[in-house]
Amino acid sequence: MTLPEEEARAIAMTRTFLYALLDPRQTPRVPREVRQRARRVLKHYPLLPPDPDYTPWAERITRK
């Protein structure tokens, strides 16, 4: 089971990874299409981790 803190950390680390994909100095030889996809995903990516009352995705689907 994923704890809310772990999920928030994963969201933040994924955001960092996507930004690294956009920078050719950090990630050379990444195809243009991959950089474009990272840019499109980041356009709607959450800026802040979930609040403390947030229910992790895995728990939401297993409670049904």
Task: Describe the SSE topology.
Elements: H1 4-22, H2 32-43, H3 57-62
- Quote the distance from N terminus to C terminus: 16 Å
Taking all Cα atoms into account, the compactness measure Rg is 15 Å
Uncertain ranges:
none
Q: What sequence of helices (H) and strands (E) makes up the elements?
A: HHH
When the domains are counted, the total is 1
Helix content: 55-70%
- Quaternary status: single chain
Structural class category: mainly alpha
Instruction: List the total number of helices.
Output: 3
Query: What is the strand tally?
Result: 0
Net shape: elongated
**Strand share of the residues?**
under 5%
Average pLDDT, all residues: 81
**How is the biggest beta sheet arranged?**
none
What do these coordinates show?
It contains 3 helices and no strands. With 64 residues, it is an all-alpha fold. The protein has one domain (4-62). The protein is elongated. The model has no long low-confidence stretch (mean pLDDT 81).
The gist of it:
The protein is mostly helical. The chain has three helices and no strands.
Keywords:
mainly alpha, single chain, 0% strand, elongated, 3 helices, 64 residues
